[in-house]
Structure formats: structure tokens, C-alpha cells
Specification:
With 194 residues, the chain is α/β, with parallel strands linked by helices. 34% of the residues lie in helices and 22% in strands. α1 packs across α5 and α2 packs parallel to α3. It comes from Ehrlichia ruminantium.
Length: 194
Amino acid sequence: MLYLLVGLGNPGKEYELTRHNVGFMIIDAIAQSFLLSDFKKKHNALMSSGNIKSHKVILAKPYTFMNNSGGPIANIVRLYKIPLDNVIVFHDETDIDFCTIRIKQGGSSAGHNGLKSIDTSIGRNYWRIRFGIGRPNNGRLDLSHHVLSQFNNLNAVNNTISTIIEHITLLLDNDKSTFKNKIKDLIKYEDISN
């Protein structure tokens, strides 16, 4: 069975370690951890493939800006005939506390433009791994500046990504409830410099 793991973000060096690009960061870490193929540009996305345990996977980072992520994902889903139940999208979420992970299938985009684009292109019945980035702590930062700025506590982000990778086979084994239980009690971090 083939799975599509998608990370949302914006292309370009200036966005690499920003909160909005945590989806790209997760996909890069998965590729590195499981020694998957080098990323190549195909179907308007950077793509990698290989196996995670016994599961065939395609990793994709849409090479469009966040708000246009749906087109490349729709192309990949159609070309490889991937059922939406096998599509897992990793993305940032401002309405969840920093480094808290939530998982759900379907639902609304909650104002996330990358998800809106995907919903319009393939429907809503795919899986979402929501990586909490929280909201700005002070009233001086607007939300767009917050999501496009870099993490203050990158160590916490990397630890949380490592936990996702440690339990990713549960997602692919369709054991989403055990995955939820494994990640629900993560250490609570704050996005402040140490």
C-alpha cells in the first residue's frame, strides 16, 4: 500500500526554519531518518520515496507557496492513485500550544490557507498532523509575522519531530489511536530562547 506524506511550507532559504515551514522540517527529518531517496523536483513538488518498514511512501514538499499547495498534491494523488485515507499532511497550527501535536481526519481548514488549497483540490478526507506553533506572546506581533518568523526554541521543535518519527509506523499501520496516545503526553515546551 502506498502512502503520501506531505509537509506544508514555503520554498526558499529565507523560510527554512520558520514556524510556517515546520511541515517541510518534518518531511526532511523523515527522509533522513529512514534513508529515503534524495529529493527531486517532480509534479511541482520536491519528492522523495522509499520504504518505512514495510510501507511504500512518497514524501512531498509542494514547490509552490503555501497558499497553492493543493495543485501539486492533487497531481500526485491522481497520478499514483493514492486513496485519501493514505494521505497524511504535516502542517503548522497556531491554535495549538507550541510543540503540541494533534491528529485528525477531515474537518475544516481553521483558516490555514495551505489546507484550504488542499481541501479545494482533493477534498477534506485526508489525515492532518497538526504541529502547534502557538500564537504570538505579545500583542505587538501580528499573526502573519509570527508564522513567518523563526522558532526561538528549535531544540524543542527537533525533540517533538523526533517523537513523531519514533512513532510514525503507527500512522502507516493505521493505528492512529495508539499514535495519538503516544504523542498526547509530550513534554510541554515554551517557544523561548534558552
